[in-house]
Amino acid sequence: SPFSVLGEIVVNEVNFVRKCIATDTSQYDLWGKLVCTNFKISFITDDPMPLQKFHYKNLLLGEHDVPLTCIEQIVTVNDTKRKQKVLGPNQKLKFNPTELIIYCKDFRIVRFRFDEAGPESAKKVCLAIAHYSQPTDLQLLFAFEYVGEIYHNPAKKVNGIDPGGGGGGIGSASGQQTPLFETYSDWDREIKRTGASEWRVCSVNEGYMISTCLPEYFVVPSSLADQDLKLYSYSFIGRRMPLWSWNHPNGSALVRMANIKDVLQQRKIDQRICNAITRSHPLRSDIYKSDLDKCLPNIQEIQAAHIKLKQLCVNEPFEETEEKWLSSLENTHWLEYIRSFLKHSAELVYMMECKHVSVVLQEEEGRDLSCLAASLIQVMLDPYFRTIVGFQSLIQKEWVMAGYQFLDRCNHLKRSDKESPLFLMFLDCVWQLLEQYPAAFEFSEMYLTILYDSARISLFGTFLFNCPHQRVKESTEFAISKNIQLGDEKGLKFPCVWDWSLQFTSRDRLLFHNPLYIGKRAPCVQNGAVKTFKRSKKNYSSTLRGVPPALKNGIISEQEFLPRRNSLILKLKPDFLQQTESQSNSMEQYFRDWFAKPVDLHGVILPRISGTQIKLWKLCYFRWVPEAQINHGGFITAFHKVSLLADEVDMLNRNLRQYKSNSSLQGNCSELDQSRMYFRANSFNDTSGAPDFLSSSFPFSPVGNLCRRSILGTPLSKFLSGAKIWLSTETLANED
Questions:
Q1: Residues in domain Myotubularin phosphatase (predicted)?
Q2: Of the four listed, 175, 475, 499, 575, which is most buried by Cβ atoms within 10 Å?
């Protein structure tokens, strides 16, 4: 059944509907039934999809389905009366629609015709879609319906998966669970993993007694007592006390802090917090404060840039004579803002790595720009966050638990003036790093794109709320109204997005893996304890085995700059009174030196941010544009070839292991099936060509999304084919 998700009910449907596949002809149109449920809109047809050779299946969604939370705008049209109307919730429709156009948040446009359908039925289904896709209350989102069903029918778990839980479910070799940072122990493990010996887990906010927009557990300097924290909390906006994010092996800490609203107490409290952070540094180094509100674009500017980007990628017709595409792209400011986040984060990496100082990210509420900046800094500094499980734990720690307002920023209830795509901008920044250092990341760009899509499937609790407290409060109210016994549980447990088996088969999840990744061995279990990646002098800045130490690419060699653990000689504090000019000179020198060395994939990575090095993430923004699709082209062709090579290497390794251990042939066969690659070599020296279905949109298909005109031979088509682009005559001059 297409409606197999627990709690899903059909609200309205209409037969004899045409789904438009092309604008200039109706010969490819599909006939079927348009259905609105409380979870998605669905088009059910027996017709095969024309012009399409591949479909990546989501277990929750059919080929033609759109989740309600992914709908941006609903437009009804009547051809004969020449009327059209954007449908809001609870609105009346005074004409019978002949056409329905649905604009989606992922840049898709889907179009249906009602020429043969009953006029009243067509009107009813349009009104139902408008009503159910624009709920007035958080508890009307589908996740609540689903979880209510789970608690009333414990035996009916989707795909046998419990709601909640971090689920490794990625097919990752380690099979590790993603830490959710909802417990004391997850934070304690992260302290130990990063060697932050002068920091402690604080439980002063248990039961959200101090702040409703902080997690129950977070990390603070050991020298700060709980009583002091309670006292200081009143002075911070939202009572958001400073949050520890990460510790560098040299002792520098990364801390997030909201502004202090109490002007009279401001200096005193600020001084005490800073002193405590300084005391937590082994060298008692100074603190570098970065006021993110002053040096980064604000959420309104980012939202405006996103709207312009969508306009450019979705609404603008690609004219044959379109000569302004690149300047239009520049005018969106999207790439400019990506560049500013990467640049600022890299500068703060320099402060921690080279100047050995703790960095405090200051922001008014400390739950928007600081989520993005803190995450980027950690991705650049710590190779653990470039693995799948590490990256997921980073999002849990710096976004979900730190109170990023997913409900408002993603605008799930369609009525927020606070909408802003910061989470997408973060994924785009990570994609830029992945594009520049493909062998440093365990995950692929397909993984990042699917993660972005998952933020708009209202089944998962991960990206549904403004903070952990909201989940507990709203779900407790919901449980009482539905007579659900919670017992000792704090609120209802919603399905977690990291349980990827809810959405994809284990075979399809292999596309998440980057075949170019050069990883370390999986963590081993000793005496029942997992020995995870521990950063020490030996492995934090070590390159591949056999490479001479002279080729190391730690930002600077640790022997030179870090005192030995037992050394009595402590480095002098950096003198922040020296002129800013010399500071920026030393920073520039540091970047020059770093880029002059070979990259250490298990050390620090820094972004290249000049000119054309910041690119448009084509897979994410162009995948639904039929004219932008390059058949048998795009990055996927290289991905396919590398996958076959990696699979061959894996096969050789398995054969060698079998040869050495003389194990039975049977045991080897089961191991051969466990390829970590989506594309597999059928035999050694497999020279078979790329599959016919590969295109620049893979694994997505733009077929059936609203078409525009041909773009062949225009600057845009050259851009898509990877031709070198000159942004301006100034850039041309610089290149010479």
A1: 181-621
A2: 475
- 478 and 396 assigned to the same domain: yes
Residue type, 75: V
Tokens of 102: 């649905």
- Laid out side by side, the sheet with 71-78 consists of 66-67, 40-44, 30-37, 10-19, 109-113, 99-104, 71-78, 83-86
The model's pLDDT over 29-47, given as tens digits with 9 standing for 90+, comes to 899 999 999 999 999 998 8
Identify whether residues 112 and 251 lie together within a single domain: no
Q: Tell whether 572 is covered by a domain.
A: no
Same domain, 242 and 101: no
- How far is residue 266 CA from its own chain's centroid? 35
pLDDT for 155 equals: 67
- Does residue 650 fall inside a structural domain? no
Greater model confidence, 18 or 168: 18
Measured distance CA(542)–CA(600) in Å, rounded: 7
Range(s) of the domain holding residue 344: 184-512
Task: Report the domain count for the chain.
Answer: 2
- At which residue do the structure tokens 């070799």 appear? 173
Q: Count of CB atoms within 10 A of residue 732's CB?
A: 10
Q: Which helix (H) or strand (E) holds 33?
A: strand 30-37
> Which tokens hold the place of 667?
């045991």
- 297-310 pLDDT, tens digit per residue, is 999 999 999 999 99
Q: How far is CA 637 from CA 527, 597, 648, in A?
A: 44, 29, 17
Query: Which of 134, 150, 166 is at the close of a domain?
Result: 134
| 97 and 234 within one domain | no
Place of tokens 């449920």: 37
Report yes or no: 734 and 610 within 8 Å, Cβ to Cβ: no
| Angstrom distance (rounded) from CA 129 to CA 110 | 13
**β strands within 562-612, DSSP E:** none
Yes or no: say if 360 and 242 are a contact pair by the CB < 8 Å rule.
yes
Q: What are phi and psi of 390, to 5 degrees?
A: -65, -45
Q: Is the pLDDT of residue 538 over 50?
A: no
Same domain as 434, residue 323? yes
Is the same domain home to 386 and 506?
A: yes
Q: Examine the fold and report which residue of 118, 134, 150 is the final residue of a domain before the chain moves on.
A: 134
Token pair 């400073």 in the structure block, residue:
242
The helix/strand/coil state of 29 is coil
CATH number of the domain that residue 104 is part of: 2.30.29.30
Is the model more confident about 211 or about 564? 211
pTM of the model: 0.86
Evaluated on CA atoms 671, 673, 677, 682, the torsion sign reads positive
Confidence grade of residue 81 (pLDDT, cut at 50, 70, 90): confident
Residue 669 zone, left/alpha/beta (φ > 0; ψ -120 to 50; rest)? alpha
What is the C-alpha separation between 384 and 382, in angstroms, rounded? Answer: 5
Which of the residue ranges 502-516, 530-544, 711-725 would you say has the lowest mean pLDDT? 530-544
